[in-house]
Amino acid sequence: MKSLAEIRNEFIKNLSSQYTLKEIDIIFYALAETYLHKDKITLKLGLDEMQEDSQIKPTLFQTALFHLISGMPYQYVVGYTEFYGCKISVNPHVLIPRPETEELVSWICNDFENKNEELNIIDLCSGSGCIAIALAKNLKAKVSALEIDEKAINLAKKNAESNQVQVDFIQADLLNTGHLIKNTEKYDIIVSNPPYIREYEKEGMESRVVNYEPSKALFVPDNDPLVFYRSIIDFSLKNMKPQGRVYVEINQDLGEKTRQLFLEYFNYVELKQDISGNFRMIKAKEIAS
């Protein structure tokens, strides 16, 4: 029976062309923690030991390695990722949450950290539910999440439950205004990380993103790249409180164009850079009369 060290060496040998050694270790130990139900420190201390009985199941690691070699994102192989202090399960029905989206959540939390009254929040195009769940965990709020895909909603519900937060999930198509929720709810915060990558941009993207993550959550037509933002604006004009705010993640190459669209409907629009210096977020408030 192989030791963990031997299995780790197999990962290094087979994945070094795709990942750095640091990334391989992150992947390997995440899998080992999942399969062996032990923390990383314990695993590292016992790396060279032979494991008795059936503690190590080599076939699990071999199957994972096969998927990783084929290009599957490691988060799908492991089955979860960390997002703003929350453990979020992921599968090919939902996007893998990105650090830039954590920055969007951080912006909202910083803006509202001193609010004592309960906020009413809705997350549009929710996917795995990561934004809604992180906001529910960090703010005093009633949180809803709108998502078109039933399988994504089923996963998001499990994520909310495992993170011990209450989120009201709504299955609806943001682009089909005739099927949008019709109620008297008014929101303090409307947030969204919608599809915004133009189809032609596929060519410059990593194959593991294009081949494995859901296209409908990533891409928009080349001739209408702001289609989702118009729907977000339309929803906001109808459902946002007078003092409410809209927060969206955007395509960094369409920052000014997206800002100008929001300026047609809001008096205040802020275009914000992420930690890498790219304009990736917008905040809008004060609906224009």
**Overall 3D shape:** globular
- Total strands: the figure is 11
Major sheet attributes? 7 strands, mixed
Quaternary structure of the protein = single chain
Spans where pLDDT lies below 50 across 5 or more residues: none
The percent range for helix content is 25-40%
Q: Mean pLDDT across all residues, rounded?
A: 92
- Largest sheet strand order: 5-4-3-6-9-11-10
Spatial separation of the terminal alpha carbons: 72 Å
Number of helices: 11
Helix/strand order: HHHHHEEHEHEHEEEHEHEHEE
β content, as a range?
Answer: 15-25%
Rg on CA atoms, Å: 21 Å
- Classification by helices and strands: alpha/beta
Would you kindly provide a written description of the structure presented here, covering whatever features stand out?
The chain has 289 residues and is an alpha/beta fold. The protein has 11 helices and 11 strands. Strand 1 (80-83) and strand 2 (86-89) form a beta hairpin.
Write the layout of secondary structure elements.
Layout: H1 4-15, H2 21-36, H3 40-45, H4 58-69, H5 74-78, E1 80-83, E2 86-89, H6 99-112, E3 119-124, H7 130-138, E4 141-147, H8 150-162, E5 167-171, E6 187-192, E7 197-198, H9 207-212, E8 219-220, H10 227-239, E9 240-249, H11 255-263, E10 266-273, E11 279-287
Parallel strand pairs: 3-4, 3-6, 4-5, 6-9, 7-8
Antiparallel strand pairs: 1-2, 9-11, 10-11
Helix pairs in contact: 1-2, 1-4, 6-7
Gist of the model:
This protein is an alpha/beta fold and 289 residues long.
Looking at this protein, list some descriptive labels.
single chain, 289 residues, alpha/beta, 11 helices, 11 strands, 40% helix, 22% strand
